[in-house]
Amino acid sequence: MTATAAHEPHAQAARASAEYLTFRLGAEEYGIDILRVQEIRSFEPPTRIANAPAHMLGVVNLRGVIVPVVDLRLKLGCAQAEYNGLTVVIVLNVKGRVVGAVVDSVSDVLELPRDQIRPAPEMASSTVDTAFITGIASVGERMLILMDIEALMSAPDMGLIEV
Fold this sequence. Notes:
This is Chemotaxis protein CheW. InterPro entries: CheW (IPR039315), CheW-like_dom_sf (IPR036061), CheW-lke_dom (IPR002545). By secondary structure, this protein is mainly β. The protein is built from three helices and eleven strands.
């Protein structure tokens, strides 16, 4: 057996499923690619930046790196953001840039087979933006909205990453 042949089953398994970090925004549960997550930190109020959009909470110093912090609840139009003991910041690495995303709470890491993920429904309404939703997965009784966090954080209206 060649070395290439020995690795093929593992490569096929990697393509057949993916791992997602799941978190809550209001009543909804979302999932993002675990490979984008650098760390999870407790919420600490960031230093506000003048004239920043409402969803841009400010910046924090993370071991010498100045990290912009976005409240995903405000960005996605969820219920009014409330900061409590469960509120966390998911530190992401997006296109080589470190960015923080505030969420209500982190649930767990799930491995989802690709065949368990359904495409996001088409929405005719201009008020619903499905551009950053990669799919929907049913996990037991839960519906999990899978988000393309890299596309969301690098969107021009975020002003975080030069395209």
